[in-house]
Amino acid sequence: MSFKSEIKIGNKLIGKDHPTYIIAEISANHNQDYTRAEALVKAAAECGVDAVKLQTYTADTITIDCNNEYFQLKDNIWAGRSLYDLYQEAYTPWDWQPKLKQFANSLGIDCFSSPFDFSSVDFLEKMNVSAYKVASFELVDFPLLRKIASTGKPIIMSTGMASLAEISDAVEVLQNAGCTELALLKCTSAYPAPPEEANLKTIPHLGQAFGVPSGLSDHTLGTTVPIVAVSLGACIIEKHFTLSRADGGPDAAFSLEANELKGLVQSIRTTEKALGSINYQRTTKEINSTVYRRSLFVVNDMKKGETFSEKNIRSIRPAYGLHTRHLEEVTGKVASKDIKKGTPLSWDLIV
């Protein structure tokens, strides 16, 4: 069984011949306020994204309540906190999620989630989500991968921290468990991620290596990196989204605000238009511009019988005269009649 070269989420096809699929990751930016969660979905839809993404876990389904050294966060923006404490703050209440999905769908965008254990997959199946997202940290959880693949839904998997061998192992697990629609996202699991660690050239290699659509789950600041990713062939862009970084929250520091997300969507759509196809044909506007190319003109008044030389003929704009390739051929010949300055050179003027 092989993977499809494109996947379908909702009514959108995702692959190299289709528009970039843009996902706004809500994550913890609701700050435990349902009204804010709905406002995030609404704002994301107004920005023009294709989907919003949730995360389905509780602190108890993703870790345990333990404060020993193994469960302490280090060397990131959450340093000094325990995993349980962070996830207790960041999780999205499960009773919100069916309502948020319904609301997103009413606005014309998809809504799916990253599950983190078997119970969350079962819950999302009852919601009838259109796809699943595998977070980078869960790429090594083979039982969870098999559970997600068994749903038969399209899967988008982030590959942060993973070696090529680890990605290959995870892909094989998904494939053997029945997954046929898979997309892989290059991801740098740092929060925020430095642009110099993005290694975007990996994106097309991911797609070629596994025969699937590839894209970017981006944690860099700003919008430059995902726009460049699209120019390299990214089929999917995922970006964290908040109403205001000033409002705080676990993910706020590396999330886009509405004006930035809207600008990103517009820039991606412009990039897609600019990429176009391999084409050496003149566009309509170029055809109209060819008249302003260079050609041979008489640049000083000439008398009949006068010799053509660099003093009286030149290659200049516009393009009404003979092609410039004839300059040496014409030089040394004589005028067939009187010629006024500014006359396009033509064969009937030459003896």
Query: Per CATH, which architecture of the largest domain?
Result: Alpha-Beta Barrel
Q: State the low-pLDDT regions, or none.
A: none
Strand order of the largest sheet: 5-4-3-10-9-8-7-6
CATH homologous superfamily classification of the largest domain: Aldolase class I
3D shape? elongated
User: How many domain regions?
Assistant: 2
Secondary structure class reads alpha/beta
Largest sheet: 8 strands, parallel
Q: How much helical structure, as a percent, in the residues?
A: 25-40%
Order of helices and strands: EEEHEHHHEHEHEHEHEHEHHEEH
User: What is CATH's topology name of the largest domain?
Assistant: TIM Barrel
Structure description:
By secondary structure, the protein is of the alpha/beta class. The protein folds into two domains: 269 residues, TIM Barrel; 66 residues, Antifreeze-like/N-acetylneuraminic acid synthase C-terminal domain (Type Iii Antifreeze Protein Isoform Hplc 12), CATH 3.90.1210. Helices cover 32% and strands 15% of the residues. The longest helix has 18 residues. It is elongated. The mean pLDDT is 97. GO terms for molecular function: N-acylneuraminate-9-phosphate synthase activity.
Label this structure with key terms.
351 residues; alpha/beta; Type Iii Antifreeze Protein Isoform Hplc 12; eight-stranded parallel β-sheet; two-stranded antiparallel ribbon; elongated
Compact summary:
With 351 residues, the protein is of the alpha/beta class. The chain has helices at residues 34-47, 59-62, 83-90, 97-106, 118-127, 142-149, 164-176, 202-210, 224-231, 258-275, 284-289, 327-330, and strands at residues 7-9, 12-14, 21-25, 51-56, 110-115, 132-134, 155-158, 182-187, 214-218, 236-240, 295-298, 313-316. The longest helix is centred in the last third of the chain and has 18 residues, at 258-275.
